[in-house]
Every structure is written in structure tokens, then in C-alpha cells.
Design a protein that fits this description.
BirA Bifunctional Protein, domain 2, Rossmann fold, nine-stranded mixed sheet, 3 domains, alpha+beta, homodimer, 16 strands, about 550 residues, five-stranded mixed sheet
Chain lengths: ~550, ~550
């Protein structure tokens, strides 16, 4: 039969080559020809697999066997940790009334265009194969805003979470260890509400998620765009320089004040005394005490923007007190956040473990090479979650009415948890071989004869009773191989059967974690009591 | 401040336009210029949003507000059904010892090339932005085989499931209602085992999944590629025509025998008497009785391929009897399955509800327009799951050694459940507004005064005790709006607070599903007993 297949394939290959030749002669469309060539390649690969490629390719792969650059497979052990992280976070989100939605992995190119400033060049585009121009999503926030603009009339009060992959074609030189495909985990509250109530619940949710993930000690830095803008105004920053200066300030977690000041003055042309005034403010860190200090600063409170921001922050602190999370916050005037679209409070959670090595040693990192492989590009270096209020993004999608107002404006506040960093923290806590990636509770083992059908019968009875069971797919498996499989998969119980015992209506049950019993151990019970005995034992585990 | 922002944006736009002009003058790379243009577009959109676009675009969207063709958003109600389907299926998979892995959404183009025959033209390619050529995955099987070829030495005994999206750029004319992005749900067993043991467990898993999904009555058609190939051989089909004739037979679930015969003879040049002989075989359907009939057919049993297939099937039926699922199977000689890579048993589950309207009426569908929007392209029309054994696919990726053998050959057997079709069956069973997409258990309602801080305190106490609670984000919410929110979200319990009651240390709890109590109803209890009372009530629900 193999010879028949080979001949048949060889014939198909000749026919396909003829077809391509004709398409070329007839000036067919390139995409059509390409498809036929792909088909031809496949036939040749099949033939190679069948013949062992002996005609020309012996000892060589026909192609590169790898995943695309910047992407990786996640094996069963890694997925077990991922699923634990996702379910922990999802549980918190659902406790706070969240629902989930799903958006496509690619969007029309124009939906994403111009939302990410100069990072737009990192967007992956789909090839032009006729039809619309599309791009892979860069984050989950822009698709969410697009969803709200399309469906928002039904979703004016909406708590939604979305855990999914996003795509960034980071430049090789910039991306040592940065993944091009990675998970984001977003929670957002959309709707027009009274001041700071939703904002405070987002912070509450963030603390619950981080506590339950057991990532260690963390601090949530908070600030308010309106306070920051007010500071820049009263210090004398010209209006057109507010965004660039704000993005310089945002680097204070990575650079020294001297370097940031240099960027402000030399690169961005700010007078030195103005930079110094800013320096006095952005060095400030504290809690409600700092808030009171700022409120006592008349220069600041006379500024409309700062005054509104300080009022918001006062309300926020009242709510944080009620939710008992004020002690986890640090009001930090140097926090500015990169994205342009924030309009209210902004925040960023940092853990001890999330600082890159150079920072922990108090050194200034020269390149991004210091960051670990699972560095999360949604949040700044060293941070494990970040977010803020963005009241105008939905309006950018909704179009405007005749009065020149957005057709639909839905204020939003949200947080993105840097799950890739959480994974890497949790993975580093344990050895891969100690992670149980399956949930199997019972392994059915035969002693002596193969007893395949008997093992199948027992497994079937266990499955019927919702007990997770496996057995070896061999007619006559060796005993030690069965024990090895059981141990490798960390299966807690074994049901052991032998011909003699079965004839007496008996089986043995062995607790695999009690080493002292040895491989011959276990207790003999009536076969009829098997399910109940196993359920009782599992209930105690 | 808005005026400042506008001016600042206008300045940035002018600067950006200048930058692009310079890049063009300097003949910069197109991708760089494109990125800057994208950035410029974004700035203009921001300005439009701020000014209401009144300068030129009043009343018009700046761009098309939609998802890309063939893709759609899934809202919270749809996601609630999806999550239920996924968790039901996942539970079954885990009961049978499965683990999950994750592969990237795009692969190197050459990994996918030529695996899908002429359907290769439906593969989405990423744009050439420098670097590797990549394509979106077309299914989950080829990436799984690639994973095994890369990591297989550690995964020679492997039950894995993978639920994820795949991408097919189906031609508009062919795709009425066919999605370009849709979920697949695959379960596969990889490894070298004794005959038909893993195969029978796959069929057991499929029956458990379909039973638990409550999709209604179903039948699993089974056949064996070796029996089919044997039939073609003994009927006198020339070797090079076996695949084309097999794919004609596969259409018997959609076309009449006359039409299939026409395809065999007129299109594919088979002599009429050969086609008639095939017709006698492929019309056969049955169970073990049919198997015995075929085994009594000496013409067939003398054929090596058919003989091996019949032996496999006999073993399989023994195991299906043990697993108590033989009655759900139909041995069906017309089942051929489209994909080339199957080498052993093949199967396809059909439900009453999965037949398209035209078939249900006994008519021959002329176009695919009859299929519903969530038609699943992994499986044939009318089928809800499908799969088979593919022993050579991994070897196609592993390359060959000096002896011309694949470096690694891992036999596999698997099934793909058509979850999109399952969703559409389940969604059609209920009204969207009856679906509870959140899990909130308690809504905290205030009567009279707003009592925001008091509501927050109560919500905080409930969260601390793992009770899922929400409240309205308003300082002074109206009572009827609170009831409406509670009802719309199908929240079963309300905690009602009022100033007088709080002063007495009391609150009210109301069961929202007991209509007779009216809005003023509920029982008054001590605030101290609130958590216990709620837990007791939830335990009874």
C-alpha cells in the first residue's frame, strides 16, 4: 500500500506542476498561483515523509522547525500555572460583578491607526490578500472602546474583563526577551457615574487580585493627570510642551532626576528654573498627608485643573479608607504614565520582585537586556499592573453629531494586570516536574496478566461516577512502567487488580503518596465498595 | 484646559506634518513614513474628538465603525454560553487525564504550507514588515503536530486538549455566514500504543462531551481508511484515483448516489461498472452485524488493507461494548472524510439539529447559503464533531535521518468538537435577556438617603466574605433605578439599608425572585447576622 501511495503522490505532483505551468502561461492571479504552489509543496512533503526524503534530502529538515520569532509554545506545566492565575483573577473580577466579552484578534487597520503614538509602527498588519486592510490587536483597550462605540447604548453600565493575547512587532534591538505575542488581562468599568466611586472599586479589585495571586509585597502608586497638568501649568510649562514634559517625568522610575532634567532642558528646551520647580513637586511621595500638603499650596489650588484633581483625590482617599486599602497606596507625583488618553487618576502596582536586577542594585539600566523574558510591555519596567481613567476614548470612535459633539461618550476607568510577569514570578517559585498539570485522581494498574478489558471496565465505572481515571494503553503493560506513569503524573490513588483477587470480587487501593507502603502495598477491599472508598479518600485529600 | 489641549494638539499636528515632509525629502523607508502618518492620523482624530470635528467632519464618522469582515464581537450573554460550553467540555477532557498546551496564533508560513491541499489559499498571511513570513493558524492540528515534532521526546504519551480560535480567509462567494475567525476545540492522544485502545477512549470522551452538552440525539458515524482503501482496490479503482474517488464518496451525505457516480465516471474517468461495485459497498450502514457481513466477504478479506481495517474494527467494537457506547455508533461505509492525513479510523458525529434545513426537508442543497451563520468549517455540513487517526503527520515535521526514516514519528488520534455549532444550538434554546452573564449574588440598595459610604461598607464586608456583591455608583441613586439594575442583572438577593434601620443596627434582606413580596418586602435582621443569613440563603439556591 505504501508503494501505491508513493506512486499516486508522484502522479499528483506531476499533475500539479502541469497546472501551475498552465496558470503561469495564462497569466493567472499571483495569489492563485501561490496557492497551487503551496499545494505542490505539501504533496512533495508528503512524498518525502513517505520515502524518508531519500531522493535528495536525507538527514535534513525540509524546513525550519520553530515557532515564529517572539512567540513560544506554552507546555502543560506552564499552562497549569497560567490557568491558576487566570482563574484566581477571574474569580475576583466576578465577585465584583464583571462579565466578559470577546473581540476579534484582528481589527480594521484604521481602528488601531494613530492610537499608540510612535509605537504604531509595532502593529502587525495582515497581508493584503484582497479586501479590507487589517491589523492584529495591539492591546485590549482600543477594541473595547470600539465595542462600546458600536454597542454602547446597551452598555452604559458595564463592568467587563477580557483576558486575551495581544501582538507587538517590537524591533529586535529593543526587544531582547520581549515577547511579540503575550497575554493581557484587563478589567474596565464603563459608564457615567458620580466621582471616584468606580475608580475606588477598580483599586479594590486590583488589591484583591494581587493578594490572591500571592506575588509578595506590593505598592500601588497613584496620581491624577489633572494634578500633574496643574503642576506643569503653575511651574510655567508652555501648553504645547505639557505632553512631552509629562513623558519625561514618567521616566523618573528608571532615570535619575539629573537625567530627566537634562531631557527637559536640553532635548525639550524647557528653561532650567521651570524644570527645577517641577522637580520640587514630582519628587513628592506620600499618602493623605501629602494630599493635605498639596491642598495647602495656594499656587496649586488656584489652578483649576490641579484644584479639580485634588478634590477628586480627597474623595478617593475617603473611599479607599472604607475599602481598607489606603495603606497599600502611595500618592506619587512622579507617576505620569505613557499613554496619552488618560484623563483622571492613574496608577501602577510595583512588587519587590518586579524590579529588574539593575534597579534592585540601585544602578541605572543601560539597555533593556536586563529585563527577564516575560517582561510585560503593557506596564512600565518594574510594574505588575497599571491603568487609569480615560473618559474620551470611546468618543474618538463614535463620530460626531451635527452640534459637533461625539455621538456617544462613555467615560471609562480600568486596570491591566501584567500576567506574563505574574507567571514568571510564580513559575520561578517551583520546579517544573513538581507541577501537576493533569487532574487525574486514580490510575488503574494490573498485576501479572495484562487484564486490559478489566482495566477498561474499572475505568469506565470510575468515569461514570465522575472520578478522574486513567490506565495504560497497552495489552500487557509492565508493572514498573505503570508505577512510573502514575508517579510522573502525580496521581494520588491507584486501583490495583490481579486475576486471583478479581475472581474473589476484590481489588486493592493504594495511596501513592504514602511512600512507606512500597509498591506492593495498598488495602484490599470488595470491588463493590470501590467507588465509595475512592470518593471517601478523595474527600479527605 | 480643553482649549490648551486643542492648541497643544494643533501644534503637535503641525510638527508631525513637518516631520513627514522631511522624511519624504530624505527618502526614508516607507514603513517609517507610514508609522508617522498613522501617528498623524491619531493626533487628528484626537483633535476631532475634542473639537467635535466641527471644522470639517460634522455629522460624519472619521472611519468605518465595524469589525473586520467575517469576524464578530461576542457580547456578555454569548460569552456566558461559550464559557459554559468550554467548561463542560474541559471537565470531560480532564476526567480522562488531559492537559492543555498553547501554541502561537501565527506560525511560520512554511509550517502551514501544503498541509491543507487547495484550501491553502484560505490561509491568512501576515504582511511582510521585514523578518519572517508568517501565517495565522488554519487549525489546531498542524500546530500540535509541529509542537510534537519539536518537543516530542518528552511527550510520547500525551493527552492534550486545546480550545482556541483559528482563521480561514474564505472566499466571499463561498462563505455566506461562514466566520473567518472561529473556535476549535480539539482533543488528541499522541503516542505508540496497542491497537484501538486510545481510539476507543476518544470515542468515549466524545459521547460524554455530547451528552453533557445536551445537544439532543446524535449518532457517531465511524469508518476506517484501510477498509475504504481496500474496497476501492478490490472494486478496481486505479491507485492514483483512490484519493479523488474517496473524496467523491465523502459527498454522499450531501449528494445523491447518482450525482456522486456522475462525479466518479464523468469527472474522474472511472468506468461505470467499477463505480457500481463501489456503490454496493458504500451504501452499507450498520453496526457489528455489518462488520460480520464484511468479514464474511472473501473478496474483501483477501485484500491486505481491508483485512487489517476489519481486524481493527473488531477490536474497536469489543472496547466500545466495554465502554457501553456501541449503540451510539453507526458503521457507515460512505464516511470518507476530506483530509488526506487520516490513516486509521475516522468518525463524525451528527445531530438531528445539525442538519441544514434543506437536508431536513430531503432536498439537495444547491449552495452553502442554507447553512446557518455559525456553520463550523472544521467538520462536514450537518456534523457536530469529527476526527480520526493520523499516524504520519508528526513525521512530516521531524525531518528524516540518514536511513531515510522520520527522526520522530508519533502516531496520533483525535477529535474536534464543532463548538460554534454547539453554541448556536444552545443560544437558540433561550432568550438573550434570560441569560445571566454576571455571577452577582447580592445588590446593596439604599432607601431614602443615598447612604453611599454605608453601601460601600456593606459591599466591602460581603466581598471580604467571598460574597459577590454590587451597588450603584451614584451618591444618591433613585430607588427604582436600583431595582431595575438588580432585575436586569438577575441578582437573586438584595440587602436594603435605610437611615433609621441602620441606627437600630438592622438591615433588610429581600429575595428578588419572590414576586409576591413587592418592592417593599424583605425580612429585617440584625446587621451582625447579615453575612451568615446571606450565606445560608445562597446555599439553598
Amino acid at each position: 500500500m505504501a508503494e501505491n501511495q508513493k506512486e499516486s503522490l508522484a502522479l499528483s505532483i506531476r499533475a500539479q506542476e502541469e497546472k501551475i505551468k498552465q496558470l503561469r502561461t495564462n497569466n493567472a492571479e499571483t495569489t492563485d498561483i501561490d496557492a497551487e504552489i503551496a499545494s505542490l509543496k505539501g504533496l512533495k512533503q508528503q512524498l518525502d515523509a513517505l520515502t524518508g526524503g531519500k531522493k535528495k534530502k536525507a538527514g535534513k529538515n525540509a524546513f525550519t522547525l520553530k515557532t515564529a520569532k517572539g512567540t513560544k509554545d506554552h507546555n502543560d506545566k506552564e499552562m497549569a500555572i497560567r490557568e491558576k492565575v487566570f482563574s484566581t483573577i477571574t474569580k475576583v473580577f466576578k465577585k465584583h460583578g464583571a462579565v466578559t466579552i470577546d473581540t476579534p484578534v484582528f481589527e480594521l487597520k484604521e481602528i488601531l491607526a494613530g492610537k499608540y503614538g510612535e509605537d504604531s509602527k509595532l502593529i502587525y498588519d495582515l497581508a493584503d490578500q484582497g479586501g479590507e486592510e487589517c491589523s492584529l490587536r495591539y492591546d485590549l483597550t482600543v477594541p473595547f472602546a470600539r465595542f462600546l462605540a458600536m454597542n454602547g447604548k446597551e452598555y452604559q453600565n458595564f463592568k467587563r474583563y477580557h483576558i486575551a493575547k495581544v501582538y507587538r512587532r517590537d524591533q529586535p534591538a529593543m526587544t531582547k526577551g520581549r515577547m511579540r505575542e503575550f497575554y493581557q488581562c484587563d478589567f474596565d468599568i464603563a459608564g457615567t457615574y458620580d466621582s471616584m466611586i468606580a475608580d475606588s472599586e477598580i483599586l479594590k479589585i486590583l488589591t484583591e487580585a494581587l493578594d490572591n495571586l500571592e506575588v509578595g509585597q506590593y505598592t500601588i502608586k497613584i496620581n491624577h493627570r489633572k494634578i500633574l497638568d496643574g503642576i506643569f501649568e503653575v511651574c510655567g510649562v508652555p501648553e504645547e510642551k505639557i505632553r512631552p514634559i509629562s513623558s519625561a517625568v514618567d521616566k523618573l522610575d528608571k532615570l535619575s532626576w539629573e537625567d530627566v532634567k537634562k531631557e527637559m532642558t536640553e532635548e525639550k528646551g524647557l528653561p532650567s528654573d521651570v524644570a527645577d520647580k517641577i522637580g520640587e513637586y514630582v519628587k513628592l511621595k506620600g499618602s493623605r498627608d501629602l494630599l493635605e500638603k498639596l491642598k495647602a499650596d495656594e499656587t496649586l489650588t488656584k489652578n483649576a485643573s490641579a484644584s479639580k484633581g485634588l478634590e477628586d483625590m480627597t474623595t478617593l482617599f475617603d473611599y479607599l479608607d472604607i475599602f481598607d486599602i489606603t495603606h497599600k497606596m502611595s500618592l506619587d507625583m512622579s507617576l505620569a504614565r505613557g499613554l496619552d488618553y488618560y484623563t483622571g487618576i492613574i496608577y501602577e502596582a510595583v512588587t519587590e520582585k518586579s524590579a529588574p536586577p539593575a534597579m534592585a542594585e540601585g544602578k541605572k539600566p543601560k539597555t533593556k537586556a536586563n529585563s527577564d523574558e516575560l517582561d510585560e510591555s503593557t506596564v512600565g519596567v518594574g510594574s505588575i499592573a497599571a491603568g487609569g481613567r480615560y473618559d474620551n476614548l470611546v468618543g474618538m470612535f463614535s463620530g460626531v453629531n451635527k452640534k459637533g459633539q461625539p455621538n456617544l461618550q462613555i467615560p471609562c476607568v480600568g486596570v491591566s494586570i501584567g500576567v506574563e510577569r505574574v507567571f514568571s514570578i510564580l513559575m520561578s517559585k517551583q520546579k517544573a516536574e513538581d507541577i501537576k498539570s493533569n487532574e487525574t485522581e486514580v490510575y488503574v494498574v494490573s498485576v501479572g496478566d495484562g487484564l486490559l478489558k478489566e482495566r477498561m471496565e474499572i475505568a469506565n465505572e470510575l468515569w461514570k461516577n465522575d472520578i478522574k481515571a486513567s490506565f495504560m494503553f497497552k495489552n500487557k503493560p509492565k508493572l514498573d512502567k505503570q508505577w512510573n506513569a502514575c508517579e510522573k503524573d502525580h496521581i494520588p490513588l491507584a486501583v490495583i487488580i490481579g486475576r486471583d483477587e478479581l475472581d474473589k470480587g476484590e481489588i486493592r487501593i493504594k495511596d501513592m503518596r504514602s511512600k512507606d507502603e512500597g509498591q506492593g502495598g495498598g488495602v484490599t477491599i470488595q470491588r463493590n465498595n470501590m467507588v465509595q472508598e475512592i470518593k471517601d479518600r478523595l474527600a479527605l485529600m
